[in-house]
Amino acid sequence: MARDSALRFGAQTDEVMSLLRVVNLVRTGEADTRPEIGRLTGLGRGVVAQRVEAAIEMGFLEDGDYGPSSGGRAPRTLRFRSDQGTIVICALGALHIRVGLASLDGAVHAEAHCAWDIGRGPAETIDRALGMIDELLAAEEPRPIWAVAVGVPGPVDFETGSPVAPPIMPGWNGFDVRRRFEQRFEAPVWVDNDVNLLALTERSHRRDDNVDLIYCKVGSGIGAGLVSHGRIHRGANGAAGDIGHVRVRDSTAVCRCGKVGCLEAEASGWAIMRDAQLALDEGAGGILAGVVERGEAITPEAIAIAAQDGDALAISLVQRSARLIGESIAALVNMFNPGVIVVGGAVSSAGEIFLAEVRQRVYELSLPLATRDLSIVRSIGDEREPLRGGAELAIEELFEVTFPRWFADGRPTIEGVKGGA
Predict the structure, then answer these.
(1) What is the DSSP letter of 248?
(2) Fewest C-beta in 10 Å: which of 7, 20, 338, 341?
(3) Are 193 and 207 in contact (CB under 8 A)?
(4) What sign does the CA torsion over 48, 53, 56, 60 have?
């Protein structure tokens, strides 16, 4: 019967689009009763009933409880069936792998994490990630996998799903990440820069569907995700927001990408670790010296904590990093005019010590009009954020971009999603 419903709508574009809109209104929570759907769409009661019936037969919606009455018979609520499929998320970082499973409403219900060096290459890294995902799936009630989202710490050609000249990912240039996951899960796969996933998470925290936002991550590396009118701006080749490799004036530091003077070589987590070690080797004391004496590693997190605890060396390193990053963000503010800048990553965990310097440089160097309504805040810092962002990416691609291509099948397939491309 579900297939019959799909075929009934398949050749009639206006009817198809109204059906998809009905599903998405319920899915996003904009409407949860038939009268609300009619009010928002302008469709007549009979047409709404027909579309809802088709959506239920196809498995997208189901009837819920009765809602409050406004004088007549209480309306029956509708629910999107978010439990009918699973989204697999794999968030690769420079020094870790994080994987998770989410329902179709974006709620992450299982996750795993391990330390890992992305420099070990694509074959070994993806094998490890797939093994972690298989362990999560084995502990779950079996459900069809509807989509896979993968984040990587470097520029990505979004159309092909391949990293493009990633500075800190040797062996990954042009590697077909999408293919490995498609082969394993037989589901559509989307691959994106890891900072874009974090930007999508921040977008989901805000009620404004047309938000203009910059997410700047300052961890082992530095990158920015740009959200323009509610949509990720990736640029022509996936390099939009790659501020880690813009030139710092008068810098002679060699970057991991091989160039000289990159922002990442002066202000990233690995750069301030280098500078901290040099200062300690020259006899600097304080909290960081005590960390070394105890045999513990100097990490960006350790430097951020030491700064919060008042260590002079750590404070100076964090503040210099923040000033340099603030200068690069200011250039983005003048060009992009965001309403919100969110700063995240290990170095930013120093809190106001870091954020205050970023704010000062941005406001000093940006146009008054561009900063008039600008807010600069720290991210929540939840370790699940890249997983939530991966789920947001998959949901957006499934229901807002490719839905008309595959809805007649009742669930997404690789061929169906690509069919209209």
Answers:
(1) P
(2) 7
(3) no
(4) negative
Tens of pLDDT, residues 267-296: 999 999 999 999 999 999 999 999 999 999
Residue 154 has a CB neighbour count (10 Å cut-off) of 26
In this prediction, residue 356 carries a pLDDT of 96
Phi, psi of 334 (to 5 degrees): -65, -35
Alpha-carbon gap, residue 92 to 118, rounded angstroms: 8
Q: DSSP assignment, residue 243?
A: G
Q: DSSP states of 314-332 as a string?
A: HHHHHHHHHHHHHHHHHHH
How many residues does the structure list for the chain? 421
Strand partners, 189: 148
Please state the φ and ψ torsions of residue 118, each to the nearest 5 degrees. -60, -20
Which segments in the chain show pLDDT lower than 50? 1-3, 7, 11, 421
Q: Collect all residues with Cβ–Cβ distance below 8 Å to 36 and sequence separation of at least 6.
A: 25, 30
**What is the rounded distance in angstroms from the CA atom of residue 331 to the CA atom of residue 328?**
5
Among candidates 15, 23, 16, 85, which has minimal Cα distance to 55? 23
Q: What is the spatial distance between Cα 264 and Cα 347, in angstroms, rounded to a whole number?
A: 12
- pLDDT value, residue 66: 82
Model pLDDT, residue 69: 64
Q: How many CB atoms lie within 10 A of CB 106?
A: 21
DSSP per-residue codes, 136-202: HHHTS----EEEEEEEESS-EETTTTEE-S-TT-TT-TT--HHHHHHHHH-S-EEEEEHHHHHHHHH
DSSP 288-302: HHHHHHTT----HHH
Q: Which of 169, 214, 198 is nearest to 331 (CA)?
A: 214
CB 118 within 8 Å of CB 104: no
What tokens were used for 150? Answer: 């993968």
Q: Which amino acid is at 228?
A: S
- pLDDT value of residue 7: 47
Cα angle at 242 between 237 and 247, to 5 degrees?
A: 120
Which residues, 6 or more positions from 193, have their beta carbon under 8 angstroms from its beta carbon? 151, 152, 153, 154, 155, 156, 223, 225, 234, 238, 241
Q: What is the C-alpha to C-alpha distance for residues 215 and 332, in angstroms, rounded to an integer? A: 11
Domains within the chain, CATH numbers bracketed = 2-80 (1.10.10.10), 86-200+384-418 (3.30.420.40), 207-378 (3.30.420.40)
